[in-house]
Amino acid sequence: MIEDNERWTLDLLRKLIERDEYEKRDTRLFHAFQELNDRLHQKEVVIGQHGEELPINQSQTREINKLAALLDKKEMMLQSQKKRISDFESREKQMSNKIHALKYELQEKNKAIQIANDEILMGQIQLNLLTEKAEKLTRENENLVTRWMERVKLEADQMNEVNEFLKQKST
Questions:
Q1: Does 147 map to a domain?
Q2: Is 143 within the bounds of a domain?
Q3: Which domain range does residue 117 map to?
């Protein structure tokens, strides 16, 4: 939102500067026309390029024609510059949209990477828990086997003692 606001402000300032420059260029033309108009009303005579005296009206007409041609040339240049500005603005908008799309794509990829990392971490935690449980069960199994072997040995010893006792008694 701030970026759009700043862009809008910068565009407005740029357009105001362009307008001021355009008006400054035309100010000379307006002054020239005003001067010609003043001369027209004074009915002065102007010396032409070849030394002939020309009524101010013909001279003014010639200057007006020159200025009109210059004005047309400047207007064509201005149109060309406006076209270039429009092309640059269009290109800037395309690039801005592409940057926005790439930023969005990058955010989505970062989210996918984060999800994958979370799943890997969860898998490692589960593996650690299962490894601990397997080790605990192995220890319990070994403990039970040891206790069972001791009990079987004790029973075997007791049976041997009973058999010894019975052998001794029968003899």
A1: no
A2: no
A3: 2-126
Number of C-beta neighbours around residue 59 at 10 A = 19
Name the phi and psi angles at 55, rounded to 5.
Answer: -65, 150
Q: Which tens digit of pLDDT belongs to each residue from 38-83?
A: 766 655 455 556 666 555 566 667 777 788 889 889 999 999 999 9
Q: Is the pTM of this model over 0.85?
A: no
Q: Residue 88 and residue 65: Cα distance in Å, rounded?
A: 34
Q: What are phi and psi of 44, to 5 degrees?
A: -80, 165
HEC profile of the chain? CHHHHHHHHHHHHHHHHHHHHHHHHHHHHHHHHHHHHHHHHHCCEEECCCCCEEEHHHHHHHHHHHHHHHHHHHHHHHHHHHHHHHHHHHHHHHHHHHHHHHHHHHHHHHHHHHHHHHHHHHHHHHHHHHHHHHHHHHHHHHHHHHHHHHHHHHHHHHHHHHHHHHHHHHC
For 158, residues 6+ apart whose C-beta sits below 8 A from its C-beta are none
Output phi, psi for 54, to 5 deg: -120, 140
161 within some domain: no
Query: Do 60 and 40 form a contact (C-beta atoms < 8 A)?
Result: yes
Total number of domains in the chain: 1
Domain assignment of residue 166, yes or no: no
